[in-house]
Amino acid sequence: MLPKNRTDCAPQALLKEMFSFIYDEQEAGNQRLLDIWARPLAEKLTSGWSQGFRRLQKCEDPKTLWAYPDDSESRFREGDLLHLHGGNALEQPLCGQLSLEREEDERWLLRGNRVPAVWDQHPGGPCYADPDGMDLTSYYEDSLRDIATSQIGREILLPLLSGDLDICFDDRDVSEGERIALAEGLNAKQAQALGLAYGAEQIACIQGPPGTGKTLVLALLARLMAARGERILMTSHTHMAINNALTKIHARGVPTVKIGRDTQRKGLADAIRCAPGLDAWTDRPADGGYVVGATPFATCNASLKHFEFDAVLFDEASQITTPLALMAMRKGRRFILIGDQKQLPPVLLSRSVLAKDASSIFVRLTSKEADHSIMLDETYRMNKWLSGWPSRTYYDGKLRSAGPNRERRFELARVEPRLAAVFDPAASAVFLPTLDRSAGARNDRDAKLVVDLCQAAAEAGLPLSEIGVVSPYRAHGRAVRTFLIERFGRTAARQVVADTVERMQGQERELIILSLATGDKVFLGGVAEFFFQPERLNVSITRAKTKLIVIGPDISHIPKIPDRRVQHWAEQYLDMIGQCRRVTL
Prior knowledge:
Elements: H1 11-38, H2 41-47, E1 51-58, E2 64-69, E3 81-85, E4 93-103, E5 108-111, H3 115-121, E6 127-131, H4 137-149, H5 151-162, H6 171-183, H7 188-199, E7 203-207, H8 214-227, E8 231-235, H9 239-250, E9 256-259, E10 274-275, E11 290-293, E12 311-314, H10 322-329, E13 334-339, H11 361-365, E14 373-375, E15 378-379, H12 384-394, E16 400-401, E17 429-433, H13 444-459, E18 467-471, H14 474-488, H15 490-493, E19 497-500, H16 501-504, E20 509-515, H17 521-526, H18 528-531, H19 534-541, E21 544-552, H20 564-578, E22 581-582
Parallel strand pairs: 7-13, 7-14, 8-11, 8-12, 9-10, 9-11, 12-13, 15-16, 17-21, 17-22, 18-19, 18-20, 20-21
Antiparallel strand pairs: 1-2, 1-6, 2-5, 3-4, 3-6, 4-5
Helix pairs in contact: 1-4, 1-5, 4-5, 4-10, 6-7, 7-8, 8-9, 13-14
């Protein structure tokens, strides 16, 4: 929490700071984009600030197009804004403010109002995309003005951010929530978390480390809140996160609707309707008791601008910045935040006004001393040999394995002798040094080794659907998928989830192969901040239930890195691979 004794954090001073922050950051963001656009194309392709495309293809919707990536590896993720150009971002622009709406194996779906103009300027063949930005100042201005003048802003939001809010709970609701949760089979800490959220009069924060059942708590909580007639806004940083949460809530029998286009329903249950606005949901329960899924930006336009909610429920709150969260919070009176600050942080690339505020709303509103926050502490995913290192490193030793997986080992019927040490049940975590010490973001030798491991596990009885392959780089992930298809055929290969860290968050598999690709120490030094980021490492290694195989750079020590924070991260990586059984093939 923010300190209560700082006079500069008083409500009016806080508002003034936030307005100044928005304007300063928009200007700084514009300059940052111009600096990136002006760099040589080869440099941008190497550093991930540009993505090459082999070709573009028209879609039936004139505001969308398909772009087919080449082998370059960019930093872009779904939801980012792109600036399409012919090779020189400043002198050969094709289209700006294109949203990366969806990624598929071989193509990206890009959307923007200016797409029709592309076909008049693009002669065909290769083109490129750099990061772009959108002037979101008006959205934030409107939100802050609402907060400055509304009762919810003056009485709850500003005091909450200033650390001056007297946070209260209804003890009867807390007890009732705990009782129901225990009766439905939740463990003690899950029941406490649900009771805390159910009885919160202003705010509750639930930290859910990997495999601890945060989605179970979220879905049951939404059901109980809807049962007492609450109108709930379910929001997050991406449509995918919202869709996943809505699907779990809908499975509990709660009336739900998604605000958005049909092209944004990936991961959403077929039975859940997409609507352009809440007015279009004609069978909405008249007296409340429903959940509306939407991004915070939907509260700024006709979709939700004139609606208010009893509660705002955030999933993956650790990836949501404070200004973005405030957009949604101004439409409610109670706030439930569920996330984990030890997993992936906010994505800031396409929201330049947020660049300085690297801290998420979840980080800002939680602390070890806060009475309104609680951490789930039993993981039902990892066995006790896999949960030990992340528990000590990221969760102060408080995370522990529970349930059927706690004592379970990775058992295969038989494996070829060459890989016997890799698949030995006694070693839940294994480290294999990379086979190509000159590799950067793509390592074909390691990719083929990954496929060999998948084949050996499958021949020994493990279903391909129980194997996940995680990589930091899209290019390496594409190489793995290509070799999987060559070995198993397209249909069977798709059973193996092989993707980037971002796309694997929330998933789990019996066997996880973390293939880090990089072997070149010079390249590694250039991407150290990205490569060693602890949140990424935490997500990567905690997808596994009983077996983790890490294929990565074999470094006995870390050269001195100027940034002491990154130096510490690199030392954590060394400690992690040191806890694994080392096998050399």
